[in-house]
Design a protein that fits this description.
Layout lengths: L1 H5 L8 H15 L2 H10 L5 H23 L5 E3 L3 H11 L4 H19 L3 H8 L2 H22 L3 E4 L3 E4 L5 H18 L5 H15 L22 H10 L3 H25 L3 E2 L2 E2 L2 H18 L4 E3 L3 H6 L5 H13 L4 H8 L2 H14 L12 H17 L2 H18 L8 H16 L3
Antiparallel strand pairs: 1-6, 2-3, 4-5
Helix pairs in contact: 2-15, 3-4, 3-5, 3-16, 4-13, 4-15, 6-11, 6-12, 6-13, 8-17, 8-18, 8-19, 9-10, 9-17, 10-17, 18-19, 19-20
Membrane topology: Multi-pass membrane protein
Keywords: Cell membrane, Membrane, Transmembrane, Transmembrane helix, Transport
GO cellular component, one term: plasma membrane
Length: 433
């Protein structure tokens, strides 16, 4: 049955390799089961609902990826976009249900795009340098939040920001976690982030920073929708939150596409320059985002941590299916996960290091052409400094169109870029959140 479902021999693999690869992938990405609830519960979403929604989103996306696309890729709530959601909830004045509705609307559009060829036009319309700039900017954004949450960086009325008190237990435990994870990464240890978090958690427990009253148990499994998606979506549109919807859609689309290309290339699954099951893979992510938005989490993305399983030899959906099985088992560790999520020193190192991973995109930007370099630059500084992925992307798009027009480089501007730039100008001036 496994051979028929996953074509193991055709992909030069076997059941043992796929199962072990799924186990490795799980330990590499399992930090999200703690970090995502920690980030989104700060936005007001009940922690047990975020935990449940995270698992639902992972299962929906990863099972479709495994069974329909037959790819060894795991889908889970994306880092960066969840932090953006939390900041919006804290600063915009809108409640989490209205903001979840913008995620829902973005996911609906994503499903439609994934089922049509228009997705290719949308992806192709965004210049490569801007894509790289967006990725690097979100990396900085994530890292800054980790530094802030751990009190390594604090507000300063004279310098805006300054170094925090390194004698603060949260600060020095975060630094310890960073060093542990980095050493493990340097030694190419599988599941380095998970192991680093576990070590910090153990130390935190014995020093009294972490309180664990219970290890095993399941969350309040209320599988009803967290809100009415239709009513809240109408409310979000009436409030003019188009820019936020667009941001959730764009970040998810580019993040997923880039990750899938990277992982499938590593696995040797790209044939004749194309992903054979691109449509199914994008549908997996779009349906996961749709399910997650209705139950209580932000948009999903294909996870780059899937490359850990691929490096071990994982080549088919059986790797992803194994990871899904382990995610289901994690439901029974909810009390432990919720305790871990309450300690910033445990989750912050993951945010900082994941942010550093995303900075590699800067090397791919063409810095010799000002019409390409400055839009990428303003995006890179705009997202972390404004605390808004939407605003950073908006400035990048607008400057790109203006600079290209100033040099009469009409051919470099995709027609959709004009539309995006105009919409962003309207959003920044009249519909800004």
């Amino acid at each position: 049955m496994l051979e028929r479902l996953f074509k193991l021999k055709e992909n030069n693999t076997n059941t043992k390799t796929e199962v072990v690869s799924g186990l490795i992938t799980f330990f590499s990405m399992s930090y999200i089961l703690v970090v995502n609830p920690a980030v989104l519960s700060a936005a007001g979403i009940p922690l047990d609902r975020v935990f449940t929604a995270t698992i639902i989103a992972i299962l929906v996306g990863t099972l479709i990826m495994a069974l329909a696309a037959n790819y060894p890729i795991v889908v889970a709530p994306g880092m960066g976009i969840n932090s953006y959601f939390a900041i919006l909830a804290a600063t915009s004045g809108y409640n989490y249900k209205t903001l979840l509705a913008t995620c829902f609307l973005g996911a609906v559009i994503f499903v439609i795009l994934s089922a049509t060829k228009f997705r290719e036009s949308l992806i192709d319309s965004i210049p490569n340098n801007l894509r790289h700039g967006i990725s690097a900017a979100i990396g900085l954004f994530i890292a800054f939040l980790g530094l802030k949450n751990s009190s390594l960086i604090v507000a300063n009325p004279h310098t805006i920001l300054s170094l925090g008190d390194l004698k603060n237990p949260v600060a020095y435990m975060t630094i310890l976690g960073i060093f542990i994870i980095l050493v493990l990464l340097a030694l190419e240890v599988k599941g380095a982030i998970f192991i680093g978090m576990a070590v910090v958690a153990i130390i935190s427990y014995f020093t009294g920073m972490l309180k664990v009253e219970k290890v095993f148990g399941i969350p309040h499994m209320d599988l009803s929708l967290l809100y009415n998606p239709v009513n809240e979506s109408i409310n979000a549109l009436q409030l003019g939150l188009y820019g936020i919807v667009f941001t959730f859609l764009m970040v998810t689309l580019f993040d997923t596409t880039g990750t899938m290309v990277a992982v499938t290339s590593q696995a040797g699954l790209i044939k004749n320059g194309k992903m054979e099951k691109a449509k199914e893979a994008l549908l997996a992510d779009s349906f996961a985002s749709l399910a997650g938005s209705m139950f209580g989490t932000t948009p999903t993305s294909a996870y780059i941590e899937s490359s850990a399983g691929v490096a071990n030899g994982g080549r088919t959906g059986l790797t992803a299916l194994t990871t899904s099985f382990l995610v289901v088992i994690s439901i029974f560790l909810f009390p432990l996960a919720s305790s871990l999520a309450s300690v910033p020193a445990i989750t912050s190192p993951a945010l900082i290091i994941i942010g550093s991973f995303m900075m590699e995109s800067i090397a791919k930007i063409d810095w010799s052409d000002i019409t390409e370099a400055f839009p990428a630059f303003v995006t890179i500084v705009g997202i972390p400094l404004t605390g808004s992925i939407n605003d950073g992307i908006a400035f990048g798009f607008i400057f790109y169109v203006v600079l290209k027009l100033s040099k009469k480089q009409w051919k470099d501007i995709h027609p959709l870029m004009y539309i995006f730039a105009i919409l962003f100008v309207i959003q920044l001036l009249w519909l800004h959140v």
